[in-house]
């Protein structure tokens, strides 16, 4: 039997693409195991879908000052030895890494043990963890054509991002029922990335009464971000993080406000959902969401609102503009070809897997 180790963690964007590969890998006869950090959000997500999970020690590699910078190098070193031990035990034919800090020691240990490694970069330019991993990888999959030029020749493979098949099986009726909504008023869904977004949450809540005049609102606001004052408000439902029901909530949404994380936007495009993107700014990231959002705006898929331009007025305008012109957004999205990221990655794994 062929064995594969999947790794990735930190935020859901480094986990859901791995989850998307699972059914196809199982069909191909792979025995799948997962390596993540001991207590990251990936642990719960992966255990929930029934994969064997191996936690290793992990530290964040920060570019900025933090007291933890002095203890984390030791955790990363320990992570390397944990990863080596786990890989020796699991003996995979191939490793697939979706990125995030926990994956660096896994990829390096795999290289040391001569296990072929495929890594995947969802964003336009490689993040720090993937940059450190690229020299140890056999192939580097990417989501955007623009990324290929940032990768070593001979390693880059343009695959797109794997999207969970189940997201295409949502039911509008089930979504409305879950929220106790009617079918006679449009639904606005707000999703702030896998960790939520305080800036987006505040902008929505500051405008709640105006927005509720025309829309019913599903607000996925991130862990610990529920607002108790709004609990039970008619036409408004809030969730911290949504797992199995996400497909139904997407199905009943007429307009979506989202961060511009690479996976989230690929899902919106594949599901043909008219959307407003509020990318994470340069103060909190290397600016990849800004590039993601600009690319989607250029292609006519999205309306982009920069975080510093979000006001009560601009947000309301954007929602109405996208809702009124939803047909033209859907039309533009219909021009995009759906590639086959899952099929391409599984084929690559088959080709590289150590015999
Ligand atoms: C703050 C941060 O570092 N953001 C990065 C992170 O975002 P983040 O982790 O938010 O990643 P994405 O937006 O790419 O993906 C989020 C994933 O979580 C899922 N989801 C989200 C909420 C929920 O309740 N349920 C659920 O299932 C979404 O459907 C999606 O599959 O990784 C992305 C991909 O490398 C980057 O583009 C982002 O810049």
UniProtKB/TrEMBL annotation:
Keywords (A to Z) from UniProt: Cell cycle, Cell division, Cell membrane, Cell shape, Cell wall biogenesis/degradation, Glycosyltransferase, Membrane, Peptidoglycan synthesis, Transferase
One GO cellular component term noted in the UniProt record for this chain: plasma membrane
One example GO MF annotation: UDP-N-acetyl-D-glucosamine:N-acetylmuramoyl-L-alanyl-D-glutamyl-meso-2,6-diaminopimelyl-D-alanyl-D-alanine-diphosphoundecaprenol 4-beta-N-acetylglucosaminlytransferase activity
Origin superkingdom: Bacteria
Binding positions (UDP-N-acetyl-alpha-D-glucosamine): 11-13, 164, 194, 289
PANTHER family to which the protein is assigned, alphabetical: UDP-N-ACETYLGLUCOSAMINE--N-ACETYLMURAMYL-(PENTAPEPTIDE) PYROPHOSPHORYL-UNDECAPRENOL N-ACETYLGLUCOSAMINE TRANSFERASE, UDP-N-ACETYLGLUCOSAMINE--N-ACETYLMURAMYL-(PENTAPEPTIDE) PYROPHOSPHORYL-UNDECAPRENOL N-ACETYLGLUCOSAMINE TRANSFERASE 1
Function of the molecule: Cell wall formation. Catalyzes the transfer of a GlcNAc subunit on undecaprenyl-pyrophosphoryl-MurNAc-pentapeptide (lipid intermediate I) to form undecaprenyl-pyrophosphoryl-MurNAc-(pentapeptide)GlcNAc (lipid intermediate II).
Name by which UniProt lists this protein: UDP-N-acetylglucosamine--N-acetylmuramyl-(pentapeptide) pyrophosphoryl-undecaprenol N-acetylglucosamine transferase
Biological source species: Anaerostipes rhamnosivorans
Gene name of this polypeptide: murG
């Amino acid at each position: 039997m062929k064995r594969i180790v999947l790794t990735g963690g930190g935020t859901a964007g480094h986990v859901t693409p791995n989850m998307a590969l699972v059914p196809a890998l199982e069909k191909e006869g792979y025995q799948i195991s997962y390596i993540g950090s001991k207590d990251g959000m990936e642990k719960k997500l992966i255990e929930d879908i029934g994969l064997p999970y191996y936690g290793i020690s992990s530290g964040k590699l920060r570019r900025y000052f933090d007291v933890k910078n002095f203890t984390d190098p030791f955790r990363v070193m320990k992570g390397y030895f944990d990863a080596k031990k786990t890989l020796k035990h699991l003996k995979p034919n191939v490793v697939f890494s979706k990125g995030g800090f926990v994956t660096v020691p896994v990829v390096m240990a795999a290289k040391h043990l001569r296990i072929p490694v495929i890594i995947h970069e969802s964003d336009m330019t490689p993040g720090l963890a993937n940059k450190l991993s690229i020299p140890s990888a056999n192939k580097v999959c990417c989501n955007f054509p623009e990324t290929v030029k940032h990768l070593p020749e001979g390693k880059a493979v343009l695959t797109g991002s794997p999207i969970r098949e189940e997201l295409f099986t949502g039911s509008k009726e089930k979504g409305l029922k879950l929220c106790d909504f009617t079918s006679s008023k449009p639904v606005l869904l707000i999703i702030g990335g896998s960790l939520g977004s305080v800036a987006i949450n505040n902008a929505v809540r500051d405008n709640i009464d105006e927005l509720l005049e025309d829309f019913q609102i599903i607000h996925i606001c991130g862990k610990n971000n529920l607002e108790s004052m709004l609990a039970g408000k008619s036409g408004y439902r809030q969730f911290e993080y949504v797992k199995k029901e996400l497909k139904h909530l997407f199905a009943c949404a007429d307009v979506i406000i989202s961060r511009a994380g690479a996976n989230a936007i690929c899902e919106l495009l594949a599901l043909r959902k008219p959307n407003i993107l509020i990318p994470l700014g340069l103060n909190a990231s290397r600016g990849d969401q800004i590039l993601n959002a600009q690319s989607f705006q250029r292609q006519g898929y999205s309306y982009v609102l920069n975080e510093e331009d979000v006001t009560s007025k601009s947000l309301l305008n954007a929602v109405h503009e996208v809702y009124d012109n939803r047909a033209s957004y859907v039309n533009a999205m219909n021009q995009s070809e759906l590639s086959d990221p899952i099929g391409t990655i599984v084929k690559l794994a088959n080709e590289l897997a150590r015999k």
